[in-house]
Amino acid sequence: MTTIPTSSTAQVIPGQGAMAQPESAKPAKAKRRRFLFLRNAKAVIGLVILGLYVLFAIIGPWVTPYDPDARSNDLIQAPSADHWFGTTHLGQDVFSQVLDGTRSVVFVGFLAGTIATVLSVIIGITAGYLGGRTDDTLSALSNVFLVIPAIPLMIIITSILENASNLLIALVIGLTSWSWNARVLRAQTLSLRRRDYIEASRATGEKTWRIVGFELLPNLTAVIASGFIGTVIFAVLSLITLAFIGIVSNAGWNWGTILFWAQGQQALAQGAWWWFVPAGLAIAFLGTALSLINFAIDEFVSPRLRSMGKTKLKTASGGTVRMRIGFTPVLDNSAAPHTHAKPIPINTGGATPVIRETAGS
Amino acid sequence: MKYFLQRIAFYLFTAWAAITLNFFIPRLVPGDPVQSLIAKFRGQLSTEAINSLYVLFGLDDDKGLWAQYIDYWKQLFQGDLGLSFTFFPSPVSQIISDALPWTVLLVGITTVISFLIGTSLGVLAGWRRGSWTDGLLPVTTFFSSVPYFWLGIIAIYLLTGPDSFFPSSGGFDSALIPAWDQYFIPSALQHSLLPALTILISSVSGWILSMRNMMVTVSSEDYITVAHAKGLSERRVAVSYAARNALLPNISGFALSLGFIVGGTLLVEIVFSYPGLGFILLQALGAKDYPLMQGIFLVITISVLVANLVADLAYLLLDPRTRKDG
User: Fold this and answer.
1) What is the pTM of this model?
2) How many CB pairs under 8 A join A and B?
3) ipTM over 0.90 threshold
């Protein structure tokens, strides 16, 4: 299938494909490889936004213009120079509340994500690597947790643990949301453990913990990272949900608490859009940033998933052609009667347009 | 068949685990919740209700944990989930059976529609990469990062009003009595449009993304190349060769994400004061109505399990490989 006569082909766009890459000097190359992940625009945007959130999580409570609890006489004011996001029914500054709430959201999100990731790594890799009875038991356990709806379970547990602190909430969320990652990791471990290099290290008598720690784990990094980010998104949404229903009342401000008060005080009926829009957008942007990082990880691991940018190309003869991975578009140079050539599929990942001279010319 | 039996066994096991979990959760409550409830409902609780509460919370000291567990199962098999405090003295089972149809219809119909739309868009986005469909991803990502209920609040703010077509709350016109007639059904439909739309917009992006990624993976398989080489039309290759195979993982994904969607729906119901389980759950939370909360959790879990079983059956029909070794 790959026998395209190279003698009659000519590159249309130089600079595309592996061949066109000039070999660069060695140090530059090493540097480029290290920051390969950052060459992805999604990763950069996601990391920058996430960085801002982390920054505000650290400094947020110190830089609020007002005390988020302080009442004032400006009741339900629209956004102004004094109150950037307006005020609540008690005259509290919404901007200060959003800033102050960032810390607990980021804290719970990352802590719950960490707990769930550690659990899923332990359970997923153990199940996948050891197999047999252990695998059956652990798989059944994670499937049970996967199927039981997490949000109602969290709601009930949190409401029974009256006045739970942020730490406790993170624990509840982390303990109920590890199962998806464990499943993914188990599948990935299963496919890795029969690879030659694992077999080789087993044959040389390496200890199991060493194989898992030094051979398996590094190859699972991307899967673990993407699972972690996914869990953080889920944890943030869960915390907001719990706070919105009003069962996390004693844990200070977070965006869900703001929404809880806005809903309870009929912010909608009073037209106070500034009361609930900022908190919601804060959630949405945090979630988007995390999803972008996750997409970037996916694309980093599996380059096929990259969106390809411009795929319609103008050819030298003025026609347009749509590029697709795995296919080599056949262009004809002349308007002469043309053979019924279809695009010729080739196996390699790179898409190289080929000009084929028609038989007559 | 063997596969099918395995799945059934698994769901029975999960149901048992959920019920057992439900049995143990109230036993973690510190203090004596029943005493405080009795105090709260001064004299209104019958002796029978108090006894049922003690069984539920595991505070009848004269019995061991095992005997309590047996009692709990006995109660369950009689369909007795205890009495609700919020809607005293209605039994929990009755309140739930009133609310369940609303939730099941809302979640069921919107999820199926969302799955169909999302999957078809995903096929398109995966097949025609580099066209306008790439723009779908960032937009849908944004929408899926927003909590369901927040989108509902915004929808109420933007789309409802005194002279809007969309009602802002409730499940039907309050002047009507629930019945299957020509007045009630259109009113119920009209009230469900906005909640349904909210769930649809929030949940569709997950389907688009997973289907797109599967399409991309599948479209570099050899059999797609062969189909192209045979000169089949683009459409036929995309639909009958690529999409058919890409669909399978999405169906098992359908089952797994159901629990998540149900969780989001509960919140949407709260925002829209829609008379389903979520709305009742909120009232139960406010009143510390543990029997009702537990009943709702149990019913939701079992519904999700049943839906999963249905998705498994669909998978069985669609994927011949699961039938082969049976």
Assistant:
1) 0.78
2) 168
3) no
